[in-house]
Amino acid sequence: MITSAGVGSGLDIESLVSQLVAAEGQPQRLRLDRREARLQTTLSAMGTLKSELANFQNAVSGLSSLSAFQGTKASVGNTSLLTASATAEAATGTYSVEVQQLAQAQKLASKTFADSHTVISTGTLSFRFGTYDGDSNTFTANPDKSAQVVTIDAAHSSLSGIRDAVNGANIGVSASIVNDGAGDRLVFTSKDMGVANSLQITVGDGDGTDPADNVDDDGLSQLAYDPTAPGVGSGKNLTETVAAQDARLLVDGLTITRPTNTATGVIEGVTLNLKSAESGSPTTLTVASDGQAISKSVNSFVDSYNSLVESLNSLSSYNPETRERGALLGDASLRGIENRIRRLMGDAVAGLSGPYRALADIGITTQREGTLALEESKLQSAIETHPEAIARLFAVGGEASDPLVRFVEGTETTRAGEYEVNISQLATQGKYTGNATGSFPITIDADNDEFTLKVDGSELGTISLTHETYNNGSELAAALQSQINSNPKLSEAGGSVAVEFVSDHLEMTSSRYGSASSVEILSLDPSPTATTTQTLGLTVNSGNAGVDVAGTIGGQAAVGSGRFLTGSGGAEGVKLEVLGGAVGDRGSVAFSRGVAAQLNTYLEQISDSDGFLDNRIDGLNDRVADLGEQREVLDRRLVALEQRYRAQFTALDSLLGQLQTTSNFLSQQIAALPRRTSL
Predict the structure, then answer these.
(1) Backbone phi and psi for residue 233, each to the nearest 5 degrees, phi listed first
(2) How far is CA 503 from CA 11, 336, 394, 450, 472, in A?
């Protein structure tokens, strides 16, 4: 390519070609640049729009749950007696509470020994937890705790060694040594408070083989404690220094006991922390809706929406004085989003009834510029009269008319409305019913102490009973329940069983409901099996499996699983828990999607990776990319044009060179002609 001035003519071909090509391409380049600038401005604005909508969605998603509005608070008149806390589920009201006694753990002390190094003996200490009834002089084992055995070897046969062995076993009992001035005493303390955690300590004394050696006041049996025994030397060789005791309180005249000083379940959703007892001096407990929490949630919604509106107004603004315009002025996408959000904000919530069905009902109104204004007095009035209705106005929720039918959840596909509920079958628990037991007292020994069990489909392996004589059915049932529920496989599966002695036989009931609930005895102690059947009434039997709840929701057959009933068809996604009651019509359940929930769903739809906003942004990016392709086409065309211009000017330069040569030749020839000489 020739890049210098014309050789023949002296023309500046490079400059001429460059200027002509630039003049040809400049209008089109400017047009493409202007189009890209507009697209980039729109892209940036769309990014801002998406970010602002995401911020608003983060705000409304937190308000889509009833928990954001269901704050409650508990206050106590005399906080030296107790304090209280409440969850969102707490029932509001005022209660009279009198703390009559605090719970405490039992303490048992040995007699005095010379010092902590005094050697006692070897053997075993068996700790049982349970309740001692002084009136009937009976000890009933705690069904939720199995007996614990600590082996005392020669290395731990001293007073301090026994203390260390018990503490190291981590069995729910602590041991300490206290000097009372006369010598050292070993003190056993149940780690859990309450009458059901009293101790019974039996000894396998290493100082002899006579059963009497296990209860006498010598060797390791000095630490035996059977509260039903007559006294020292017969197995009651420790002194009870602190009796096990339940907390006792009077709530609205009703006597309530709890094993600890943290009382739950007395009032639904309320935890009472007992601090001191003062009989005859009740105090007032008030549980009320936490209006501040509700007000905070509503104000947060208003502030978040107003922030969004200000951003949207900026994107679509126009200043007639400066003629400055927002990047999305007149944009159909922005207009569509604004209209949809405003419609969701202004419409009444389907599925709600009563005085609070729209935002305006609680004092939220739209101002001229599109922002929201909140009338605090109207909101406070709603909080005081219908706090739960405010939550339903914003969040996803449901409410059953029957107190024994609990609304659990609805899915994204569940339609707002009211659904009739009919129950044709209540859920039941799997149960094993034994034959009549032998006559009491019943002794458990090597011939009748084992059987294998299957609960809720999980094989638990061998259940072994403690070798002991049981005086009545309650004692036997408690011991059996304790051993079964301490099985690690059952604990891992989250299951448990309740064992009761009914009339003349044992019944084992799974805690689970539904067709997956079952209790089955797989085998009995092999030596011989008839002994177990004769004494305990147990036989190899699959028992009766539970059944699932059955019924309809909204007239459509629902799917039952345990006590849970899930709707289908028109009631798809409605999930209820049927806690009890009768079969037949059970009222209705109302399901609604509040304003915040509807906004959250809409914003999720348009903000998803394949949603409207991303599709719009992708389209803009495609148009920017298309401009790049157009520039490439223009560049190729200008290169071809430059080549054509260069070829043409090169030809012109050659022609001019030839003409110049001819001109020079003619000039020379003319100059060579003879000149006329003057005469």
Answers:
(1) 95, -10
(2) 126, 73, 54, 23, 11
Distance CA 158, CA 219 (A): 11
Q: CA 47, CA 58: separation in Å to the nearest integer? A: 17
Predicted confidence at residue 389, as pLDDT, reads 87
In our burial notation (b when 16+ CB lie closer than 10 A, e otherwise), range 574-591 reads bbbbbeeeeeeebebbbb
In one letter, which amino acid is 252?
D
At 385-429, the pLDDT tens digits run 888 888 889 988 898 999 999 999 988 889 999 999 999 999 999
* Tokens linked to 256: 């309530």
Is the pLDDT score of 3 beyond 60?
A: no
- Using CA atoms, how far residue 20 sits from 288, 641, 651, in Å, is 85, 9, 17
Site of tokens 């290493």 = 206
Tell whether pTM > 0.85: no
Could you give the CA distance from residue 272 to residue 86 in angstroms, rounded to a whole number? 9
For residue 131 the two structure tokens come to 């309740």
Residue position matching structure tokens 């959703």: 269
Q: What angle do CA 550, 553, 556 make, to 5 degrees?
A: 90
Task: State how far the alpha carbon of 76 is from the alpha carbons of 82, 95, 383, 386, 493, in Å.
Answer: 7, 10, 22, 24, 40
Containing 520, the helix (H) or strand (E) segment is strand 519-524
The continuous run of DSSP H or E covering 48 comes out as helix 13-62
Cβ proximity of 252 and 95 under 8 Å: yes
Residue 74 and residue 289: Cα distance in Å, rounded? 9
Whole-number pLDDT of residue 199: 97
d(CA 450, CA 189): 31
Residues 6+ apart with CB under 8 A from 290: 71, 72, 73
SS3 512: strand
3-state secondary structure of 665: helix
The three-state secondary structure class of 31 is helix
DSSP track, 58-126: HHHHHTSSGGGT--EEEEES-TTTEEEEE-TTPPPEEEEEEEEE--B--EEE---BS-TT-B---EEEE
SS3 237: coil
Angle (CA) 405-406-408 rounded to 5° is 140
Q: 29-33, 189-193, 592-596: which has the highest mean pLDDT?
A: 189-193
Contact 210, 197 (CB under 8 A): no
The set of long-range contacts for 644-649, using a CB threshold of 8 Å and a minimum separation of 24, is 645/16, 645/17, 645/20, 645/21, 646/1, 646/2, 646/13, 646/17, 649/6, 649/11, 649/13, 649/16, 649/17
